[in-house]
Amino acid sequence: MSKTEEGATPAPKSNFIHQEIEKDLKEGKNGGAVLTRFPPEPNGYLHIGHAKSICLNFGLAEKYNGGCNLRFDDTNPTKEEVEYVESIKQDVRWLGFEWEGQEKYASDYFDQLFEWAVKLIKNGKAYVDDQSAEAIAAQKGTPTEPGVESKYRNRSVEENLDLFMRMKNGEFKEGERVLRARIDMASPNMHMRDPIMYRIIHKSHHRTGDKWCIYPMYDFTHGQSDFIEGITHSICTLEFEVHRPLYNWFLDQILEGEPEPERRPRQIEFARLNLNYTVMSKRRLLELVQKGIVNGWDDPRMPTISGLRRRGYTPASIRMFAERVGVARRDNIIDVALLEHCIREDLNKRAPRVNAVIDPVKLVLTNYPEDKVEWMEAVNNPEDESQGTRKIPFTRELYIERNDFMENPPKKFFRLGPGREVRLKNGYIIKCEDYKKSENGEVEEIYCTYDPETRSGNDTSGKKVKGTLHWVSASHSLPAEVRLYDRLFMDEDPAGHKDKDFKEFLNPDSLNILNNCRVEPSLKDVKALDFFQFQRLGYFCVDPDSTPEHLVFNRTVPLRDTWAKLAKK
RNA sequence: UGUCCCGUGGUGUAAUGGUAGCACAGGAGAUUUUGGUUCUCUCGGUCUGGGUUCGAAUCCUAGCGGGACAACCA
Fold first, then answer.
1. Measuring CA to CA, which residue among A73, A82, A69, A68 is closest to residue A107?
2. Burial track A389-425 (b if 16+ CB lie within 10 A, e otherwise)
């Protein structure tokens, strides 16, 4: 496997799964092999929680010199599957991981699974039940009361075999019969109360077409698929913990009478990722998309991998995040500030600095010649000398950020105000002499003088100023649209309120579109997902909607802003 | 009123019988032609009660708190 993109490499951090694997290795299990798998069901888009699992599984493979399979858990053709396969593959690759060989499908193993089902029937460990779903559910009992046995539980092997074949041959309608494991209806673990192994679904499958009309359930599929592939460590989330005895039971049954295999997969559970100020369940994410609350699965406010990508998150930042959140078994809610820290850390080192003014106000240098253009040298990235320098045009008329000027600034405000001096980065020190307001009281133009002795790079004035502003040339800058994103929800745990719908906590200001922005001319030929630091503002990336005629940038995350914190006080 | 899992600073996560550490967040300062970055300092924690031990975050036990489990979903 390989990291397909440069960027920060997370520092390795130990967790309990490493310890379990090392214990197995020491005991010589699985012939010393480590093979993991990432097993998505192709019924939706991947989100940041999946990214944690991907990084964990592929990371384990890398650490122990093993491999990681990508396997689609496609045992339920009623749930629309083929359209999601490609997006999942793309997302895994984009995160920087390469799976072992071809991608796998649980449906590749349907023949083998069927044979094993027959084996269980022959050994008296499975039976066909003719009851309805409702009847079976009613007999299942509850977590505190045992279930009761089905009246079909003690059919003969011959009858079970015959019925199962007829199920396979399409002689029954959906719901008429199921194959169940014969375990223990009184087990304290509900999953051991004669779980369903196969159900009838008359629907064609995205890979097997109409070959089958019976499909295996998750529990009868997952462990055996792991076994077939030689998976050694089957890592999943905590809600599958109660399935583990069943996972092992099915493995015991298929191995019955067989020689000891070299590898036997072992299920290990960890706590899924939760992020504050968002929702993570597929159901709620789908609702946001279907109700048009967001603009699709890749809306930059979504915690989906495709949304984060469009927002400007890099694979390296997400890998870093996955490393920093750690892996444990206790429930957790990660502060989204950690995710933001990770993208800032990555982009600080890599993003070229450019000037963009997203809320422009005109500034005129009254003592600067009308037609003069000075091409000022600017460092592309002070954190990375190899990114070199570029020239930016300095002219008499400029745009600066509206909030960099105040008519009556407090002492702590280091920016522009009447009579105040600031430096224009990569330009000159200027002094505000006057300003003009429109009838509605809005500042329209600011008039300054510049000091020719203070040119950046060869300042001979010895002047010191507290503030440095970014700017663009009024005549040379390009118009652009900028989309400012904020958290989608105003509540830390929008789905965590019993009596309130999560949508009640939507942030009305989660998207703010600015149409009158100006960016420096070097941004003329940007491509989708190119990332930049708009100096003093934040990290931005080029939206796929962007064209050379109409530039569109997404704000990934603002820069840390200690002034904003101060101003709030 | 069952079975299982989990309780370490605000949030995460280490320490696996021997000095409770790290990261993020918060606070203070230094540097800075980004109020960014960087650097320094700082705040703050083992759910509670018993027990075992020279010694317990760690082992045992009781309690408390949180979570999972009753789909022909995965």
1. A73
2. ebebbbbbebbbbeebbeeeeeeebbbbbeebbbbbb
- pLDDT tens digits, residue range A89-103? 999 999 999 999 999
Question: Which residues are CB-neighbours of A135 under 8 A, at least 6 positions away?
Answer: none
Q: Which nucleotide is nearest to A133 (CA to C1')?
A: B72
Interface ipTM > 0.90: yes
**A159 φ, ψ to 5°?**
-65, -40
Of A437, A441, A454, A357, the C-alpha closest to A397 is A357
Query: Can you say whether the dihedral through the CA atoms of A44, A239, A230, A13 is positive or negative?
Result: positive
What single-letter amino acid sits at A473?
S
| Residue A282 annotated among the catalytic residues of the structure | yes
Nearest nucleotide over every DNA/RNA strand to the A215 CA, judged by C1': B72
C-alpha triplet A537, A543, A547: angle, nearest 5°? 115
Nucleotide nearest to A332 (CA to C1'): B12
Alpha-carbon distance values, A15 to A55, A60, A233, A274, A279 (Å): 13, 11, 15, 18, 26
CA distance linking residue A555 with residue A512, whole number of Å:
10
- Round and report the angstrom distance from CA (A242) to C1' (B60): 26
Contacts of A338 (CB under 8 A, 6+ apart): A321, A324, A325
Please state whether strand B lies within 7 Å of residue A165 at its CB atom. Answer: no
Cα three-residue angle A42-A33-A17, rounded to 5 degrees: 65
| Nucleotides on chain B within 7 angstroms of protein Cβ | 1-8, 10-16, 23-27, 33-38, 66-74
- pLDDT, tens digit (0-9, with 9 covering 90-100), for A450-502: 999 999 998 998 899 999 999 999 999 999 999 999 999 999 999 998 889 99
Nearest in space to A331 (alpha carbons), one of A263, A242, A237, A417: A237
DSSP single-letter state for residue A272: P
Active-site residue A41, yes or no?
A: yes
Helix axes A157-168, A110-122, angle to 10 degrees: 160
Q: What pLDDT sits at residue A529?
A: 98
List of residues 6+ apart from A199 with CB closer than 8 A = A174, A175, A178, A214, A215, A217
Compute the distance between CA of residue A378 and CA of residue A261 in angstroms, rounded to an integer.
65
Catalytic choice (A3, A93, A119, A272): A272
3 state DSSP class of A45: coil
Residue A248: closest CA among A269, A227, A279, A228: A227
Active-site hit among A41, A62, A241, A433: A41
Residues 6 or more apart whose Cβ sits within 8 Å of residue A340: A557
**Nucleic strand B within 7 A of Cβ A453:** no
Nucleotide nearest to A467 (CA to C1'): B35
